[in-house]
Amino acid sequence: MIRRWVLYPLLLAALLGPWYFPGNAEACVGRKLILGALQEDRQDMVSKLLSILIHERTGTTVEVEYFASEEKLMEKVRKGKVNLYVGYAGAALEGFGKGPATGSPEEDYRTAKRLFEEELNLIWLKPMGFSGRDQAGRTLGWAGVVVSKEALKKFPALPRLLEKIGSRVVLKDEVLDDLVEKGRDRKPAKVARGFLKQEKLI
Amino acid sequence: MIRVLTGALALLIAFPGPGKAGEGSKTGVSGVIEGRVTWSGEVSVDGVIVVREGGELTVAPGTRVRFVPRDADGDGIGDSELRVEGALVVAGTRQEPVIFTSAAREPAAADWKYVMINHARRADVRYAVFEYAFSGVQIHYTRGTFDSIVSRHNVDGFRFSTAPVTLRDSYLTGNGNGIRFEERGVGAVIENNVIETNRIGIFAVIRCTGLTRFAGNILENNSSYSIKLGDEQAQDLPVEGNWWGTADGAAIESTFFDGRVEPGMGKVLFRPFLDERPVPGEKMAELMERWSNR
């Protein structure tokens, strides 16, 4: 049995600890968003485009977290640990158990948008202009930014900003592939920044 | 029982341990400052120093404060910082400035977090250098005077929000943003500074309504823009009476990211502007000579 003269100081230290030894948990570098991305070249480039666009236009810090599979990414999204990511509508439907996709990318996008909002509290923004494809070259459907409703409460202006990619600047497959290719010779972030600047988005 | 608790408290006070940052603590300090404390000589900060509401930290001329680069949370920003909730007096002189810097052998921006002055009593800072931080200085909800400071090689050189601050005769160079601010109903004074060779000279993020007076500043050679407005900065930003590196109005306009580029955003109102480069005074010339990136 622990003696009182040992126990009480321990209790007191536990009570006073957080006050006495200030940590950096509340340290603030401003508002922050976590953007999830799959570990592949196109997702890497798109995540850089989005994170730079958000940071440059709003001052918000965006941290990109990479995932080996869509399942792992979605697990974090469901837990609210990832605020936004780029999804592919056809693949999303299949992952959601509502596949196979219809063959109409527009139809798939509409269905994914409705289901994700109803059942996962996730909002698909307007399509960005390119389609997902797997390593065998099969298409995974139109790509769009998917944002949690929680994040939209904190950042209500996010859709207007992010939808500039897809409306003002359509990120077609060939445009994205060209950026990815350029990113092999130079730093992808530098390529992404250069593209956004050239398109007068930042 | 009371005797036991009193004894335990006495033990904590008698052996403050590595978490107490007081006078004479010069190596690897972190912790809290509650009374009046003066730093001088070499001070190494490893972790977080908090100057509590009733505390006052004075930094003597010639003091060099080095922040140990440590990034435990892996967010790319060093964790060491000085947080002020009480009062901060940085008493550098022209001959002996105070230097807040990184302890890294090869320092880089964001090695340490910032000097954060938030809801504090006051900040009076003269002849101080802030370098290799995430934000050299961040000040919010606090009255402060910053005179003849240098902020360089930071992500944000000088960042303020909702704070009646005066920044004058200072040199901001080599930062991501020389100045980043949000007025939010409180005006500041930014005058007679040199803001050069940053990526962005001034970033007006949001809710800036012209309460802040920018005058007599030299803004030149900022690589992306001299002024950038944030995505939600819909109001115009008046900044008359500054030098923009040229007397050509159209050329000056091309250095703004504002409503001229992005409809829906406000515009930078820069006319009338100084049509000749002001000659920096002797003090400023000295700062530029010593701390310039060129």
Structure annotation, total helices of chain B: 3
What is the average per-residue confidence, as pLDDT of chain A, rounded to a whole number?
86
Q: Span between N and C termini of chain A?
A: 66 Å
Mean pLDDT of chain B: 91
Poorly predicted spans of chain A: 12-28
Summarize the structure.
The complex is a heterodimer of chains A (202) and B (294). Chain A has helices at residues 4-20, 41-58, 70-78, 89-95, 105-120, 149-154, 158-162, 164-167, 173-185, 188-198, and strands spanning 32-38, 61-67, 84-88, 122-133, 139-148. Chain A is of the alpha/beta class and 202 residues long.
Task: Write the topology of this structure.
The complex is a heterodimer of chains A (202) and B (294).
Chain A: H1 4-20, E1 32-38, H2 41-58, E2 61-67, H3 70-78, E3 84-88, H4 89-95, H5 105-120, E4 122-133, E5 139-148, H6 149-154, H7 158-162, H8 164-167, H9 173-185, H10 188-198
Parallel strand pairs in A: 1-2, 1-3
Antiparallel strand pairs in A: 3-5, 4-5
Chain B: H1 2-14, E1 29-33, E2 36-39, E3 42-51, E4 56-59, E5 64-67, E6 81-84, E7 87-91, E8 98-102, E9 112-118, E10 122-126, E11 128-131, E12 133-140, E13 144-147, E14 150-152, E15 156-161, E16 165-168, E17 171-173, E18 177-182, E19 189-191, E20 194-196, E21 200-204, E22 213-215, E23 218-220, E24 225-229, E25 237-238, H2 249-253, E26 256-257, E27 268-269, H3 282-291
Parallel strand pairs in B: 1-3, 2-4, 3-5, 3-6, 4-7, 5-8, 6-9, 7-10, 8-11, 9-12, 10-13, 11-14, 12-15, 13-16, 14-17, 15-18, 16-19, 17-20, 18-21, 19-22, 20-23, 21-24, 24-26, 25-27
3D structure, described in words:
The complex is a heterodimer of chains A (202) and B (294). With 202 residues, chain A is α/β, with parallel strands linked by helices. Chain A is 52% helix and 20% strand. In chain A, helix 2 (41-58) packs across helix 9 (173-185) and helix 9 packs across helix 10 (188-198). Residues 12-28 of chain A have low confidence and may be disordered. By secondary structure, chain B is mostly beta strands. Chain B has three helices and 27 strands. Chain B has helices at residues 2-14, 249-253, 282-291; strands spanning 29-33, 36-39, 42-51, 56-59, 64-67, 81-84, 87-91, 98-102, 112-118, 122-126, 128-131, 133-140, 144-147, 150-152, 156-161, 165-168, 171-173, 177-182, 189-191, 194-196, 200-204, 213-215, 218-220, 225-229, 237-238, 256-257, 268-269. Chain B has a 17-stranded parallel beta sheet that branches. An eight-stranded parallel beta sheet of chain B has the order 2-4-7-10-13-16-19-22, with no helix packed on it. The interface between A and B is medium-sized, with 27 and 37 residues.
